[in-house]
Amino acid sequence: MTEEREDERREHEVGVGPWRGPWPEGDHWDHELLASGDRRNVLDRYRYWKHEAIVAELDTRRHEFHVAIENWQHDLNIGTVVRTANAFLAKEVHIIGRRRWNRRGAMVTDRYQHIRHHATVEDFVSWARSEDLAILGVDIFPDSVPLETYELPRRCVLVFGQEGPGLTPEVHAAAQATLSIEQFGSTRSINAASAAAIAMHAWIRRWVFGQVPKA
Ligand SMILES: C[S@@+](CC[C@H](N)C(=O)[O-])C[C@H]1O[C@@H](n2cnc3c(N)ncnc32)[C@H](O)[C@@H]1O
User: Fold this and answer.
1) Rounded Cα gap, residues 212 and 215, in angstroms
2) Which Pfam families does UniProt cross-reference here (predicted)?
């Protein structure tokens, strides 16, 4: 590779090369990253930090909403839901059903997100009740109410269903309410990961920006 090409490649590379100058002092610095560079997909403020130091810092600021997704048929949306949950700093992500899920869409964000597995809906519901969290289903059922005008509680878990079947009747029955996202085109639904991003952002608008929805 010519020098020019090498420079071009470096310019498009994510992250930073080895630390220049005397190494900084502090327990959160990762000596291996300082020595060889930090190419992780993290904010610049976390460059060269140990992984556990980043998680610990995020833990001091996590929001009070949780997200859950049902996983009975290996739903491919889960990785994207985890990535969005990381972006909006959800307290935890819950996988209900099968333990295994495809991590591809998560783009490694699952390493920074607390993920809890519940084998059954019953287990999930008893956990949510023990934490005093409002269970809110997100789906388009005849009894759903519009997310756009719903006053989301601060402490809640937003639950999403699978491509195809949507939320199970068990989650529907356990939910304090089921919320629908208004659509205007010809399709019945959007995918679960898109719905999850919209719902999480509704919580952010309400509880970080104080935007109370108008009926
Ligand atoms: C593709 S949908 C499932 C199909 C849907 N139950 C139906 O009746 O056509 C998968 C998941 O995405 C979410 N979802 C998709 N569109 C939605 C909408 N307009 N409002 C609320 N949730 C939606 C729900 O969590 C749903 O369980």
Assistant:
1) 10
2) SpoU_methylase
Which of 67, 71, 140, 182 gets mutated to test ligand 1 (max ligand atoms within 8 A of its CB)? 140
Determine the Cα–Cα distance for residues 70 and 101; give it in Å rounded to an integer: 11
Contacts of 152 (CB under 8 A, 6+ apart): 65, 136, 202, 203, 206, 207
CA of 72 from ligand 1 middle (Å) equals 15
Q: How far, in Å, from the CA of 158 to the mean position of ligand 1?
A: 13
Q: What domains can be seen in the chain, in order of their start residue?
A: 3-59 (no CATH), 65-207 (3.40.1280.10)
- Give 157's contacts (C-beta < 8 A, 6+ positions apart): 65, 66, 67, 68, 94, 128, 133, 134, 135, 136
Do the Cβ atoms of 118 and 94 come closer than 8 Å? yes
pLDDT in tens, 30-49: 999 999 999 998 999 999 99
pLDDT tens for residues 105-153?
A: 898 899 999 999 999 999 999 999 999 999 999 999 999 999 999 999 9
Give the predicted TM-score (pTM) of the model: 0.92
Confidence class for position 76, pLDDT limits 50, 70, 90: confident
Which residue owns the Cα nearest ligand 1 atom 6? 166
